[in-house]
Amino acid sequence: MLSLAELQHRIASGDLAADAAVAQSLEAINAHDKTIGAFVCRTENARATHAGPLRGIAVGIKDIMDTADFPTEMGSAIYRGWRPRGDASVVMMLKQAGATIIGKTTTTAFASLDPTATVNPRNPGHTPGGSSSGSAAAVAAGMIPLALGTQTGGSVIRPASFCGVAAIKPSYRLLPTVGIKCYSWTLDTAGLFAAGVKDLAHGLSAMTNRPDLLPGAPMRAPRIGVVTQDFAGAPEAAGVEALRIATVAAERAGASVRALAMPEIVAEAWRIQPVVQEFEAHQALAWEYRVHYAAMPPILRARLDESRETTPAAYDDAIKIASQGRDALAAIFEGVDVLLTLSAPGAAPKGLASTGDARFNRLWTLMGVPCVNIPAHVAEGGLPVGVQVVARFGDDAGALAAARFVEDALARR
Amino acid sequence: MLSLAELQHRIASGDLAADAAVAQSLEAINAHDKTIGAFVCRTENARATHAGPLRGIAVGIKDIMDTADFPTEMGSAIYRGWRPRGDASVVMMLKQAGATIIGKTTTTAFASLDPTATVNPRNPGHTPGGSSSGSAAAVAAGMIPLALGTQTGGSVIRPASFCGVAAIKPSYRLLPTVGIKCYSWTLDTAGLFAAGVKDLAHGLSAMTNRPDLLPGAPMRAPRIGVVTQDFAGAPEAAGVEALRIATVAAERAGASVRALAMPEIVAEAWRIQPVVQEFEAHQALAWEYRVHYAAMPPILRARLDESRETTPAAYDDAIKIASQGRDALAAIFEGVDVLLTLSAPGAAPKGLASTGDARFNRLWTLMGVPCVNIPAHVAEGGLPVGVQVVARFGDDAGALAAARFVEDALARR
């Protein structure tokens, strides 16, 4: 994979021309994307910009994010050839930091569950996960050092786990969703994919102009609460193994580790997450669902069909439970620095019919807390399985620092 | 003015054909809009729909809201001729309730402060206020029974006050902002303009499918806290008079009324509101500001120029203060049902150079609480001055009920 931080270092030191760094990504895309299918469209004559911390960094943008320079098709025939007038805020943040937008990456239709044709670079017989399928696959295949995705249920952390890359779903609203196709305004969160945790930190810091996100002095060993999310059902053996490996590695590296049960109200928040998600989707996608019903992707359409009768009162109750869950979770962070939990039930499912299950992700998206995926295990078939580090709301720096601690611990074992 | 509730009643009883109700609005627009200038564009052959509580109701949509059937120009040359692919969620809510979208109403560029050419229907030598200039003016001039606007600082309540119409800025996120041009995601709130409070209630209830918003049995006299917002500076004589008249009328009608001071943290929230607003605007309007700097409207551009150096840390602090302010305000509502306060410093300023001042509005937008404007006084020059009823977050039904109580009290005096 292409390390963003390493590219930055080589460009800054004069070892690598910024244009050559971008050209390297273009060549890699030309070499590999015919078999991977991570890009919807891309520029053929990309150049580096002249300044900024992300100069020479080629970035892929999930195709539900508005771009003035590329079509934005939302993974759906309803938006075929659609060209927004302007760039989404996150795209402008990248440009202002000097990055080069190299193309648009595949997304399941409207960032829901209908799969794309993208394959998993670690094993092309398996899904890369979704909904940010192309962004995860493009980074995993070494085509680009940075890609943007979004998560409503588990659309950043799950594909990162399946493809064996690092990814962060930051705190809710650390990154603006302006110009990003909305599914659920309470949940939708933009996130980053990169080779390693340090690369994520450099990318997110440059986009947001927040130097406190950069890796600092070696972190003191964190207090880690290990969460199995029993309310979400049983994980597969590969998921259990990934969490076990990461837990042991962190403990050996000096972290204080203990199992942590979630209070009932947090489990209840997990249960009502779909009520929030689908009630809002009915409003966010009202035009598509009502005016283009026949052209709606079938899995999403069935979901919306099933949730048509959700009442405003049920939604209000769900929002209340979510708020109580956030308060209860905040109290838990009085006793630990971060949580360590599953990124997905197990390795990427076989075939491309399903992008996998978000049941170990959706609670954290609803809680709005930052989550970082770290590859922890390689299961049968060369399929990666990740774990996620979860920090308190607003503590993205802490999430990144602890994730780097776990990443280091895993590398040294 | 055209009363939505009365039109509904006449249509339901067979006294008025739904198509005739729509035709009446088209005729009124043709008769009056040449002098008022409330519409950017409109349909010439509008028909009523076949069903729904808003059948026969012609609605004007602020031109920062996406419409598939009309251009959406954001009040700016940067979006001249721009045609979105789909409808904003609020537009779909109206259509699903059976309303007829009759046209797009004028907006200051990007819902900021650069004025439109719309005049105040009560006195054409004065501004109608902004940013929802056309929506307030179109209802005030009797052209349509319902119009949508948005408020980031005071863009719904202020023009309603200046034009002498009822308006509600509901609780934050009661109405989705999906498909509405964003200025500040923490603040932007869609709202409604109509002839009276009952009309607002019928419109909002139909859009949201929330029957609890409908006027019920006569409300018991509310406990009212009168707030002068001293932190916002002194009002003009006409503003003072409007608040005095409304206070006396409510008390005579049986309300328990007492003066209420706001705690220091709420005043502090008022002070930091511009930090939140402009920091987010820099991200929301990054493409326009960076790529089309020369074409940006001058007042907005100057605002953005002045706030370029706001740091993420200053923004984070402001968000924290806002959150503390919301908690303090929630505690205040333990002792009163609603607050009664100024809708604007005074009557509409002379001329069209300024849309007036949002200093008596911006706190409540930041607090996310529902606000209802009621005309209370007519100042020199026939210029209306309103007051606003403010309820606790989520209590839109209570805000409407208390506003109706005050409206009745004012009518009976």
Can you describe this structure?
The structure is a homodimer of 413-residue chains. The mean pLDDT of chain A is 97. The first copy, chain A, has helices at residues 4-12, 18-36, 89-96, 133-140, 157-163, 197-208, 237-252, 264-284, 286-291, 298-306, 312-332, 362-367, 396-411; strands spanning 39-42, 58-62, 100-105, 146-151, 166-169, 189-194, 223-227, 256-259, 338-342, 371-379, 383-391. In chain A, helix 3 links the parallel strand 2 (58-62) and strand 3 (100-105). Chain A is globular and about 55 Å long. In chain A, 38% of the residues lie in helices and 15% in strands. By secondary structure, chain A is α/β, with parallel strands linked by helices. The relative contact order of chain A is 0.15. Chain A has an 11-stranded mixed sheet, with helices on both faces. Chain A has one domain (1-413): Amidase signature (AS) domain (Amidase signature (AS) enzymes, Alpha-Beta Complex). In chain A, helix 6 (197-208) packs antiparallel against helix 13, helix 7 (237-252) packs across helix 13 and helix 8 (264-284) crosses helix 11 (312-332). The first copy, chain A, has 13 helices and 11 strands.
- Architecture per CATH nomenclature, i.e. the level-2 architecture of chain A: Alpha-Beta Complex
Oligomer: homodimer
How many domains is the backbone of chain A divided into? 1
What is the 3D shape of chain A? globular
The value of Rg of chain A in angstroms is 20 Å
Tell me the major beta sheet of chain A: 11 strands, mixed
Residues in helix, % of chain A: 25-40%
User: Mean pLDDT of chain A, rounded to whole units?
Assistant: 97
Spans of chain A with pLDDT under 50 lasting ≥5 residues?
A: none
